[in-house]
Amino acid sequence: MNPNTYQRGLKRVCDAEKQLRIDPLQKLQFVNIYWVVLLYIYIMRRPILLFVLVLLLMPVIGFRMMGHSSWGFYAHKRINRMAVFTLPPGVFGFYKDNIEFVTDHAVDPDKRRYAVTGEAQRHYIDIDHYKIEEEDVFVTVPKKWKDAIKKYTEDTLQAYGIVPWHIEVMMFRLTKAFQEENYDQILKLSADLGHYVGDAHVPLHTTENYNGQLTGQKGIHGFWESRIPELFAEEYDYFVGKAYYIEEPLEFAWQAVKESHHAVDSVLNFEKILSKQFPEDRKYSYETRGNVTVKVYSQEFTKAYSDMMAGMVERRMRKTIIAVGSLWYTAWVNAGKPDLNKHKNKQISPEMQQELQAEDKLHQEGKIKGRGCDHN
Fold this sequence. Notes:
Layout: H1 3-20, H2 24-44, H3 47-61, E1 64-65, H4 73-84, H5 92-97, H6 99-104, H7 108-111, H8 137-140, H9 145-152, H10 154-159, H11 163-179, H12 183-200, H13 220-232, H14 249-261, H15 264-277, H16 280-283, E2 284-289, E3 292-297, H17 299-308, H18 312-334, H19 350-365
Parallel strand pairs: 1-3
Antiparallel strand pairs: 2-3
């Protein structure tokens, strides 16, 4: 793989991590020190030192801008869970029995960035990179992988994201797992596929300006896909209809990307308009998450933004849910509609459990495979 390709994918990971993560052990150490010193001051009745301590340690234990990668863990899990209820008989029972797995593991592809080199670019495509003057980029960019390689080279495609093509790859793998009646892989690939499909439905996963870094709007990525669902997802309508057979999954994936990309201007411009109307102290607020105080977009600003977009986030989530269910169903049909009842009450294998635990460990350690953020 070209070093520039890896570096670009890694930068996306690092940008998200700088907003999202604080090393768990480091945070625990600071918090423990904080409370030990606080207890000492209380005992010694030195209130002036208490005030100084709070001022000194607050930047360490808190006041971080909240951010997330992809839809945010909450949204990805909700999407996979609700997709189960779109499925028809023959496949619904299997997914219903395993609904906790496809829900809990909807975020595994994000965790896998810490174990697999080249994972990052599977989550997005910077389609605007290929735009030439007034040409329609969705006409000029070949839909098929081999054709796109001939036109741009594989290194270029990897550098600017491959999500629509990776969805096609995941469909092949899931269909094969159904054909082989491989219980572990059916579940794992179903959860993973739901994640990538979700990413394709996020506008900011389709542009080089993925976090507003090119327009002075850094942080908008997490704002759109995490903060809004966090506040309003419980009010969304998740009755999206029944899953249906998809004749051309690759074309379907490209259509999702196209619809997402057409919303990019609104996502960015509406936030700019509102930011001019809201002073800093109304645009942001502070919330406590565990032992950490985080800076977040205020509920007032978030609601105004969501209203200005006329429920765009809810619409994209709804589209994602029916898309995920339909692709699961399509893979099962293409595999010959195998009888899934034989897997009732089955458990994933010890080998699969170990694989998932290893991914969790790498994610918790926060060690990205390859060079770290400091090298960007």
